[in-house]
Amino acid sequence: MRSLLWLALVCHVAFAAAFAFTTPSFEAPDENSHYEYAQHLANAGALPLSPGLAHARGLPQTEGAARAHEPPLYYALLAVALLVTGTDDTVFGPITNPAFGNPALPGHHLHMLHGSGQGDGPLLLLRCLSVLLGAITIVLVHRLGRACCPTQPRTADLAALLAACLPMHAFLHGALNNDVLAITLSTATLLALVRLLQRERVRTVDGLGLGALLGLGLLTKLTTLYLGGLAAVAFVVVWRRQRDNRTLVRAALLAAGVTMLISGWWFLRNLQLYGDPLALSVHDAAILVIPPEYRLDYLLGSFLPQVFTSLLGRFGWFSLPPHPALLWCALGVVVIALLGLLRTAFARERTHAVRNWGLLLLALLLVFAGTAVFNWTAPQPQGRLLLPAIGPAAVLLAAGLLRATTRLPGRRWLALALPLTTLVVFVWWFCPAFAPSLAPAPAHHRALVGGIVDAAATPAITWQPPLPTVSATAPPRLRWLDPAAPADARYTLYAYDTHGRVWLASHEWSHGALVLAGSEATMPAAGWQLLPRGVDLFLKLRRVPSLADEVPALLPTSAPLPFRRE
Predict the structure, then answer these.
(1) Under a CB-based contact definition with an 8 Å cutoff, are residues 415 and 338 in contact?
(2) Residue (of 538, 557, 548, 561) closest to 485 by Cα position
(3) CA 535: distance to chain centroid?
(4) Which of 5, 69, 175, 394 matches a 20 to 30 Å C-alpha distance to 551?
(5) Region at 44 (left for phi over 0; alpha for psi -120 to 50; beta for the rest)
(6) Residue pair 507/544 in contact by the 8 Å Cβ criterion
(7) Average pLDDT of 476-487?
(8) Which domains does the chain possess?
């Protein structure tokens, strides 16, 4: 029987890539903060601090990042991509849409304003990494299905197709989010644990591979914490079955040791910086924590319905919920799958039995419990937090659906309803709500601007005397000449050091509020505060676009001017 994994991969790449190219810049949850972390790693060559800690230490705001408490592995992958493509000096400056959340206005689903010249090439590149990670996940889900249902190969095919055609899974893998790597590593670890349980004799080397996966998972996102408990349960189960327990103990100790070797430094760093190994205190300081007297009502009244419905697809910054018809279809699929699993459980013949179903079910329960515990204080009923368990969920659903429909004629064609449904959701539900034209930005706005450090061959803007002193203790007065400039020309001021790290992008980081116009201006005080003390810098002036089709990197710029804040 020929595998249909290729169909699942085609569906995943098609849908995830469609979301990646169609979703306007930074219209996925916290996508701007994820980019900020990655760009900081690439451009500064160091991990960021939380904004609160950077402020407490008297450091420039540029030393902090909103998601600095998150483990760094995913962001390191993005940073490598930025470095390889030479776009590590690309800064971002999205403008919040004032109509966001107001259902009376047409663009209320869009969190940002959008123009025609977004300059979002680096963002699309990084989104493609998410598409790639999702493809790896689909392959792993298929292998998990093969391992758990070896006598029913179509279970693996359907499980992979279910994962590929889940609208929220496709949307998430068309955006920047560390969930995508956490999902991949969670699925890989679950597959390794299933194979561990299925081995007649566990080898010491098995602990090495498992420890590497656990360590990488913990270095990606805290939603993978459940894997540690799941691994402990798996080792206990094998302990009761395997006679050579010395080898098993060595494998378990090796797994624990490798896990700590890979990820332990991160938790020690958090403990040193924030007094909290998980850095949850930093997260809680940035959100509104649920008061104790309202937590139970929130958990039962808001969390439970929202977390499961958003699992199907709550798009944008959670502004567009799934259509009710999609919810009813999904409920029907789940009910049919549960009936099929019950039929399998009470059947005498074991052809449709799911091997290691207990481990899969435990994974589902642990992921849900972890999400519920997190939401006990932090109101974030987001279905994406459940997706680390997409592998076991897809396998169990597929096994149940196939068992429940064994006598249904032409059931193979029913699988085509999955990609068709996702296509309808994308074209009919998502695209009209997230058309960039619904929230137009000013002509000068660009979501991302790069080429800051690149030296211009022939600078068109010339610095005019008196030039500021190289070292200064106050914001300098700048004078320049731009002969071809229109009367209403505006400028952005950049500051970067000898290593190419950008410390200031006045227009982009202030959304145009720090306006430099005419032929002279004093560096704004807000920009002055972003500069480090005692660091050799270069100041560069560049004209801001006035038309939607102008490329910032091609506009007139000045030569770099040496400067240092004392």
Answers:
(1) no
(2) 557
(3) 33
(4) 175
(5) alpha
(6) yes
(7) 92
(8) 5-104+121-288+296-436 (no CATH), 448-565 (2.60.40)
The torsion angle over the Cα atoms of residues 456, 460, 465 and 468, rounded to 10 degrees, is -40
HEC readout, 186-215:
HHHHHHHHHHHHHCCCCCHHHHHHHHHHHH
pLDDT given for residue 377 in this prediction: 87
Q: Tell whether the model's pLDDT for residue 287 goes beyond 90.
A: no
Q: Are 207 and 258 in contact (CB under 8 A)?
A: yes
Tell me what pLDDT residue 226 has: 96
Q: What are the structure tokens assigned to 17, written together?
A: 């890539």
Rounded CA gap, 526 and 136, in Å?
A: 45
> Are 35 and 175 within 8 A, CB to CB?
no
| pTM of the complete model | 0.95
| pLDDT at 265 (0 to 100) | 97
Identify the three-state secondary structure at position 532. coil
Query: Which residue blocks in 425-509 are alpha helix, DSSP H?
Result: 431-433, 506-509
Structure-block tokens of residue 89: 């000096």
Task: Read off the pLDDT of residues 198-222 as tens digits, 9 standing for 90 and up.
Answer: 988 888 889 999 999 999 999 999 9
- Residue that the structure tokens 């007139």 belong to: 556
Using an 8 Å Cβ cutoff, are 508 and 441 in contact?
no
Query: What's the pLDDT tens digit per position in 354-365?
Result: 999 999 999 999
Q: Are 196 and 210 in contact (CB under 8 A)?
A: yes
SS3 state at 458: coil
For residue 84, give the nearest of 126, 46, 135 by alpha carbon.
126
Which residue has 């002279």 as its token pair? 520
**What is the reported pLDDT for 407?**
79
User: Residues 539, 494: contact at Cβ < 8 Å?
Assistant: yes
Which pLDDT value is given to residue 282? Answer: 87
- Chain centroid to Cα 511, Å, comes to 24
Instruction: Pick the closest to residue 547 from 458, 446, 438, 460 (CA basis).
Output: 446
- Widest CA span of the chain, in angstroms? 92
Calpha distance 396→358 (Å, rounded): 11
Angle separating helix axes 73-84 and 179-198, nearest 10 degrees: 120
Q: What is the pLDDT of residue 83?
A: 96
Continuous segment of H or E residues that includes residue 143: helix 121-148
- Which residue bears the tokens 């009923």? 381
Q: How far is the C-alpha of 305 from the C-alpha of 379, rounded, in Å?
A: 13
Residue range 288-342, pLDDT digits in tens: 788 888 888 888 888 988 999 999 999 999 999 999 999 999 999 999 999 999 9
> What DSSP assignment string belongs to 232-295?
HHHHHHHHHH-S-HHHHHHHHHHHHHHHHHHHHHHHHHHHHHHS-TT-HHHHHHTS-PPPGGGH
Give DSSP secondary structure letters for 278-293.
Answer: T-HHHHHHTS-PPPGG
